[in-house]
Amino acid sequence: MPELPEDLAELAELCGVQTVFTDAAGTTRRVSPSTLAAVLGALGVPAASPSAIAESTARVRDDEWREMLPPAVVVRQGTETRVPVHVTDGSSVSCWIELEPAAAPVPPGAMPWRVAPVPSTGRRGVSSPAGDGTTSLPVTRHLDQADVLVEPRIVDSRKVGRATFAVPGDLPLGWHSLHAESDGATATTTLVVTPDRLENPQASAGQLWGFLTQLYSVRSRDSWGIGDLADLADLAWLTANNAGADFVAPGPLQATEPTAPVTDSPYLPTSRRFLSPLYIRVEDIRETAYLSSADRSLVEWAGEPVRDLSGDDAPIDREAVWDAKKSALEVVFTAARSAARQTAFDEFVLGQGRGLVDFATWCAIAEHLGDQEWPPDLLDPTSSAVATLRGSLKDRVEFYCWLQWVADEQLRRAHRVGLEAGMRVGVVRELASGVHPEGADVWVQPVALARGVSVGVPPSSAVGPEGRNRGLPPWHPRELAKAGYAPFRDMLRTTLRHCGALRVGHIGDLFRSWWIPGATRATAGAYVTYDHEALIGILCLEAQRAGVPLIADDALLDDTQRDYLADRGILTASVLLADQAGSGELVPPQEFRPGGFVTPTPPDLPPTASCLAGEHIDLAERLGILTEDAQVLRSRARSRREALMTSLSRAGMTTFDPSERELVEGLYRYLRDTPAAFVAVNLADAVGERRTQAQLGAGDGYPNWRIPLADGSGTLVMLEDLFESARLRSLVTVLNEEA
């Protein structure tokens, strides 16, 4: 393993960039100097030459001494924490905390696109828990200085000393502000007190089970060519009443582009904070019922080209659906709203704050520019050019805010319908692991997300010798802290609305993330570490405030990370067929990892029956994307299947020669006998679907994320007909057996 220049390795360590990683063969490999320099550059640390490295090292060493207070302070409740305060050596200093105030009433009426900008929720102000920018008088706590001696140092020709203050462990949970004053100068930073352990409101409920699906694929006869939030409500009601299900998990629902092309993958949204209006049911908007006959005709005409698509077995056409829905929604948007409805809309916009208005502005500008390249003066959301254009596009900005309100209302109804039908959890939402590199979040948060790099996975036994480039911009750890973690907090608050649990995709990225510079291969990357105590603490805080348990979705977690998450009260997800021992045998159910969220197969593998039959191998071979010999893979799949069948039959879960249906039912019977907290039943397994939703590496050779729900013969399964499936009814019987 070649040696790295000592100065470059030192700088990387100072900046939290790891210089080695373990490859697919289990060999420790060193990151190349060029990769380190590129990753450091993306962090804002020049390292392209020895002189640049020397200058950056000197600057980074002293960075924390230049600021009176740290960029942000995140602590655990119940633990005293010491905070450094930097002042001119010998000067006196005082430090105090202003506790998070209670939210003031939301003023009705004026909207952000009609009046002055929404008050900022930046770290120098103290905002309400609702994020609406309102404030009230804080409660002040003065801090005691700890008896800690640290030698002063010369920084930028100034002798700087360090005082240490003790943040007590008895502070209430919440978003507070920490203040310091010395020689007439003051500084303020965000202080977040997080729960030591997330309280799980479902902990005493016993094992829960429900259906896992991709919402777009579950269509009804009233759908406009794609499963929508009204279908989600009906799915929740049907499965609660007819199957006794405790939850329904519809996959990511985050925002898509406002204009063509519309990205098919739900795991590549334009924003992780907001919802996709593709999932709105136009007829369920209250104002639709009161349209004039002429406007009602316009809505019906808009839907005509796509209404019949729900009965078509062709791949889902998101662009056709959005063109139709957008035209209809524009008609409904112009309809008069009652005073109560208008007030509800105004309160929603004010409650979501500047983030919603900026997102809606991005949508309006993207629509306005179309295929044109964005001019430089529009790339900065705070520029005067953007403010001017926002004013001229105020109706479109309001329209895109309104779409979010409507989608939020319909999601709330779906969750409520599930609970009222007897579900103990309701909707389980999923937070995608990243955003589109050219999407709204990157525009709204130009500093908090790093540029010139993308998140991926290094070469490993899990993903293969080439690794994987997921194409997602990563959080910038330093800039996110400087922002007081507000972008992360606001994303979580919106996502935690109207759900009974939240799945967090690739949560391992909050510990460390594999950064890939530019257009290089996934092998040419490096790990960048994050303050996981801060990020996961904030995740726990916001989830606890929402009363929502968390599920960590990441097959790449190591044992240390899993243990840490368990200590924080976060459930971890397991994929049974991926987590099997090398022999393919299952451990006895009672020895299965307790307290998690378990399903047989992940979204990027075929349903269980076809996965066990090795049909994903056949598909990859047809597409020419296999990285190993097909016969070797098939032989391995057969061995694992036989070992699985033996394990299940010995445990009494199946016969010794089970049919395909019996084998799938045996797997779920096994899962119901484990101590897992959540058992997620793939809806595709229930109806006999054999096709995978996505084939990684297939490009245009496969209709990724566009497969409508069908049975084993390829016949479409409509939402209304779910319980006409004998296979589904048989599986439900198994799921409701006494353990």
From TrEMBL:
Q: Which residues form the MalQ N-terminal beta-sandwich domain?
A: 69-101, 140-195
Keyword hit for Glycosyltransferase: yes
Q: Is the keyword Glycoprotein in the record?
A: no
- One Pfam family name from the record? Glyco_hydro_77
Listed GO MF terms: 4-alpha-glucanotransferase activity
Q: Which reaction does it catalyse?
A: Transfers a segment of a (1->4)-alpha-D-glucan to a new position in an acceptor, which may be glucose or a (1->4)-alpha-D-glucan
Q: Which domain of life is it from?
A: Bacteria
Q: Which SUPFAM superfamilies match?
A: (Trans)glycosidases (SSF51445)
Keyword field: Carbohydrate metabolism, Glycosyltransferase, Transferase
InterPro entries linked to this entry: GH (IPR017853), Glyco_hydro_77 (IPR003385), MalQ_N (IPR048458)
Query: What's the Enzyme Commission number for this chain?
Result: 2.4.1.25
Family to which this protein belongs: Belongs to the disproportionating enzyme family.
User: What is the name of this protein?
Assistant: 4-alpha-glucanotransferase
- Organism name: Myceligenerans salitolerans
